[in-house]
Amino acid sequence: MTFTLYNYVLSGNCYKIRLLAALLDVQYGTVAVNFHPGGEHRQEPLLRLNPAGTLPIMVTSDQTLTETQAMLVWLAQHYDDSNSWWPIHDLDTLPTVIQWLGFANRLTSSIGALRQHTLLNKPADASTTRAAGIAALRELECRLAEQSIRGEQWLAGKSPTVADIACFPYTALSPDAGIENDDYPAIRSWLHSVRSLDGFITMPGIHELHQMRDPAGASAGTLRDHHG
Amino acid sequence: MRAKTGHEDLVVWRSASGVLSAWENRCPHRGMRLSHGFVRGESLACAYHGWHFECSGRCHYIPAHPELELPRTIKPTTFDVVERDGLVWVNTTEKAIPFSLPAGATPLRSITCNTTLDALTNHIFGTTKPCSNSGCHSTTVESQQPCVLSTLLTDSSHRVYLAMQASEDHTTVVHALLSMEANETQRITVSRWLESLRREAESP
């Protein structure tokens, strides 16, 4: 087994790992965690694995990772032979990738927190997290608009990196938190680019591009199926 | 995509062959926003029950009743739409007449400001407070209706055209255009200028 993912299907952070694993065609094991309403992640024995009480948790043959962005790097380092998702040899691009990995945490603490508040009634200061979420989306929009002026469609460099995967879920899920993305044209175009990637998988709230459905499959009423 | 103009909520979409349409953003079946739907070739399909509408607006396919002969009256309200200089002009009451921008003006980006159109133009003209960092220099009103301004920036030798679209929810979408010869760095400078213009206009 490559690794085991302690997973909650509605979590945007867990989805990041499932998505990159699917894009890199990696098989792995999952353990379903009762995040809501059970709160299993905040009880023993999971606290022994991750004292921070957060999800996801990734257990590999020799280590346990509890930070989502670190898991993305681990996956890319082990399963991306092209070294493009984690561009370790491209020293111009790598710092920018790390910059947007850091930014992804701000999406989680704003839009992610507001989404949990909206969907699961978790405590959050709605007006503060909303303002922070909009500020983060505006910053992302500005970056992507500038990248588009440069003729680029990804956050860093010329191809998708772990930074795009790290920022994708909570940006795409912002309508769940009551923040529509109609006002952000560069973001919408980037969301479309991510969803167009070969091997892309969905989660509740993030659907596939219908125009990319296989016509034969569409007429039979079935969606293209992916299992991460 | 969804667009707002005045009190009208619109769906603006382009078919696979490039035909542009602007309709009321409401499926005639159950009132679902058509902007949640998806383009399938030359049709827009509603996300709710999959009703397909062709570019004229006519509904030509209902998945639950594939054999049904559909009356021509099933269609959303459609509006006149014209595309010019990379901008889409819609008129919800009569024929859409695009404002003619000078040759070579190309779209830079569109940003939404949480201010009314009046507050934003007042700010650009510096009538409500000094336009400290915005760097607007000699702004001209090119057109009142639709509202199009052009401004010469102090830190760039380029004239920026701002086509302003007011919405009833007190927000304003600004579509900025810049002359084609502006290079990458100049375009990014103007993009950053737009960001600071918005910050200043929104600050209490």
How would you describe this structure to a colleague?
Chain A is an alpha+beta fold and 228 residues long. Helices cover 46% and strands 7% of the residues of chain A. Chain A has eight helices and four strands. Chain A has a four-stranded mixed sheet with strand order 2-1-3-4. In chain A, strand 3 (57-60) and strand 4 (64-65) form a beta hairpin. The longest helix of chain A has 27 residues, at 94-120. In chain B, helix 1 packs across helix 2 (184-202). In chain B, strands 1-2-3-8-9 form a five-stranded antiparallel sheet, with no helix packed on it. Chain B folds into two domains: 2-91, 3-layer Sandwich (Rieske Iron-sulfur Protein), CATH 2.102.10.10; 105-202, 2-Layer Sandwich (TATA-Binding Protein). The radius of gyration of chain B is 20 Å and the shape is elongated. Chain B is 14% helix and 39% strand. With 204 residues, chain B is mainly beta. Chain A binds chain B through residues 138, 141-142, 145-146, 148-150, 180, 182-183, 185-186, 188, 209-211, and chain B through 1-3, 35, 38-40, 45, 108-112, 171, 173, 184, 187-188, 191-192, 195.
Short description:
The complex is a heterodimer of chains A (228) and B (204). Chain A is α+β, with helices and mostly antiparallel strands and 228 residues long.
Mean of all residue-level pLDDT scores of chain B: 84
N-to-C terminal Cα separation of chain B, in Å? 31 Å
Q: Count of DSSP E strands of chain B?
A: 14
Largest sheet of chain B: 5 strands, antiparallel
Q: What is the class of the largest domain in chain A in the CATH system?
A: Mainly Alpha
Strand portion of chain B: 35-45%
Distance between the termini of chain A: 14 Å
Number of helices of chain A: 8
Number of E-type strands of chain A: 4
Lay out the secondary structure.
The complex is a heterodimer of chains A (228) and B (204).
Chain A: E1 3-7, H1 12-23, E2 29-32, H2 46-49, E3 57-60, E4 64-65, H3 68-79, H4 94-120, H5 126-149, H6 162-172, H7 185-195, H8 215-219
Chain B: E1 2-5, E2 8-14, E3 20-24, E4 38-40, E5 43-45, E6 52-54, E7 59-61, E8 78-84, E9 87-91, E10 105-113, H1 117-125, E11 136-143, E12 147-153, E13 159-166, E14 172-179, H2 184-202
Antiparallel strand pairs in B: 1-2, 2-3, 3-8, 4-5, 5-6, 6-7, 8-9, 10-14, 11-12, 12-13, 13-14
